[in-house]
Amino acid sequence: xxxxxxxxxxxxxxxxxxxxxxxxxxxxxxxxxxxxxxxxxxxxxxxxxxxxxxxxxxxxxxxxxxxxxxxxxxxxxxxxxxxxxxxxxxxxxxxxxxxxxxxxxxxxxxxxxxxxxxxxxxxxxxxxxxxxxxxxxxxxxxxxxxxxxxxxxxxxxxxxxxxxxxxxxxxxxxxxxxxxxxxxxxxxxxxxxxxxxxxxxxxxxxxxxxxxxxxxxxxxxxxxxxxxxxxxxxxxxxxxxxxxxxxxxxxxxxxx
Length: 256
Known about the structure:
By secondary structure, the protein is of the alpha/beta class. It has 2 domains: 4-125, Four Helix Bundle (Hemerythrin (Met), subunit A), CATH 1.20.120; 136-251, Response regulator (Rossmann fold, 3-Layer(aba) Sandwich). 59% of the residues lie in helices and 11% in strands. A 5-stranded parallel sheet has the order 2-1-3-4-5, sandwiched between helices. The chain is globular. The two termini are 38 Å apart.
């Protein structure tokens, strides 16, 4: 059974007092609803995205209704309201606006799915101890220059010093002479994917937290990332506030 404390720490779930009031039976039922969401959400997201190409409003509405119903049962009230608003506007909204709104919605909903999977998995695989210090060296690896540029911009002027590399091979060469307090790894890269890179980083003896970049909330995808050492995920497209929140969470930044 999942931990109420960990569930209540998720910002996407509100209000937290509904979860706090669950007894053991209620928590078990909640866990079943959570598993239903984790298992079914990726296919529903794909269904909506596929229907967008032909502006099949019937399919978009049907799948959005299913997503809204699951979010509502999980007490993800802000996300549920956004889904309901999208459902009501699907018929009238211009195609470009609907696509933009759905993209933003799915980014946050995927983040919730992944966060719930982390709540489940942390019991089995354990949670790494966070590092406490004032300066932080971050190694980011992604073959997409756009992401690396955005990350550098987000972290400019902060307590985080980021080194950006574009391949796993280059990253391993760098780590033969340097260290890092936290890793941000894209999963889908040529030559060496993020799973393989994470495994090699762990084999080299590094214990720093590994955060994966992804746009995929499928159960198998997330579980594999956790098994190779991932402690969290940042969902693409990336957002500055979300990136900083993740870094503070795993590095326990002391505000001065």
